[in-house]
Amino acid sequence: MKKNLDVVYTVASKLGTIGMGITSMEAIKGIEKSGLNYKAFSRGHVKEIKLNKKNLTNYSWLEYLSYPFRFIEKFLKIKINSFKLVNGFFGYLVYKNLPKTKIYHTWMGISPKAIVKAKKEGAILVLEGANSHPLNSAKILNKEYKKYKMKDYLIDEKKIEKDSKIYQNFDYIMCPSDFVYYSFLEQGFPKEKLIKMPYGVDIKRFAPKDSYSKKEDKIKFIFVGSIQMRKGIQYLLKAWKELNPENAELLIVGRVWPDAKNIVEKYKKNKTIKFLGFAKPEEILKNADVFISPSLEEGSALTCYEAMASGLPLIATSSTGSIARDKKDGFIIPIRDVKVLKEKIKYFYDNPKQIEKMGKSARKYVKKFTWEDYGKRLGDFYKEKLN
């Protein structure tokens, strides 16, 4: 009789790329280093991945399947959620090929059938709470879309509530931040199911500048991430315009999403704001001064870890799930608060010495949250439950 696997890990992303792709790769590294017998399902991986590829089931060809749907959306202007369609197909493949396992760890929104199958076969179910509870997320975003009169983007909360019932099957929810933890607690999940598991950062890849002394007068504030309503870009741009600092510039790094396109257009002519598109984060962070993350909803934004490792103080909302300590590594502020956002930008503008002090504090503190540490904590958690 074939022995059950210790762990099956599933993520609908390309291992080793940005965001969930990096987190998942580091999680699987932790599984491998723990000596557990595992299998991982993903939508591909980077070529240079340092994992046993025999344990990886790679559905990278699904990317090509999405091309016709993207063409229809872009050029024929027919609304098709290509991401959802391809993700659904990925979930079906996981369900059909899911082996028997003692632990099944999956991310949100992937294959309810696979979850039910693993549950029936007696697996311990672990959910990666990479964002707050879906109903919490939907309420936050809908409030924003209503405020900006964007009816086409409204989320069906009743459907979300119905779909979210599948999460009651899980034995454990991995919560990378207090923000995620309390969102599940508010939805009735017992504390014993909620496991706090912050993410990590590569402190060698993201390093601080050699010197904080500036050759130029301008202070560089920076935002890195997808430029969308969920990330709070609308409040950052508004705050910057109202503050209108003379010897400072705001760098915006990332791709503009459809829901923020019209908002961004209003600020394109502002000479103190630079929209840079995609850029190497380690280089651009090293040459910046203060990192701003005004997100309305996250899990635990990796960009905040990366900025801290780069020696930057943060101005971040509590909803970013940042590990930064208020008044030590920067400032933790409420969401949607343009007034407070302006105050904190002005504080660093008026007190440049605090940029170095808090930036060094952030760098020192984030060293406690390496990817190696994350992988070990996750591996130890698995072994504890298997024993």
The CATH class assignment of the largest domain is: Alpha Beta
- Number of helical regions: 14
Strand order of the main beta sheet, please? 3-2-1-4-5-6-7
Using the 3D structure, state the CATH architecture of the largest domain.
3-Layer(aba) Sandwich
The name of the CATH topology of the largest domain is Rossmann fold
- Tell me about the biggest sheet? 7 strands, parallel
CATH-level-4 superfamily name of the largest domain: Glycogen Phosphorylase B
Strand content: 15-25%
Q: Which blocks of ≥5 consecutive residues have pLDDT under 50?
A: none
Helix fraction bin: 40-55%
Given helix and strand content, the structural type is: alpha/beta
H and E string = EHEEHHEHEHHEHEEHEHEHEHEEHHH
Distance between the termini: 21 Å
Number of domains: 2
Which overall shape is indicated by the principal axes computed on the Cα atoms?
globular
Number of strands: 13
Radius of gyration: 21 Å
User: Mean pLDDT, as a whole number?
Assistant: 93
List keywords for this structure.
2 domains, seven-stranded parallel beta sheet, Rossmann fold, 387 residues, six-stranded parallel beta sheet, 13 strands, globular, alpha/beta, 41% helix
Q: Secondary-structure blueprint of this entry?
A:
Blueprint lengths: L4 E6 L9 H14 L4 E5 L13 E3 L3 H14 L6 H16 L3 E7 L4 H9 L3 E5 L5 H14 L9 H7 L8 E4 L2 H9 L7 E3 L22 E6 L8 H11 L4 E6 L7 H5 L7 E5 L3 H6 L3 E4 L8 H8 L4 E4 L12 E4 L4 H13 L1 H15 L4 H16 L1
Parallel strand pairs: 1-2, 1-4, 2-3, 4-5, 5-6, 6-7, 8-9, 8-11, 9-10, 11-12, 12-13
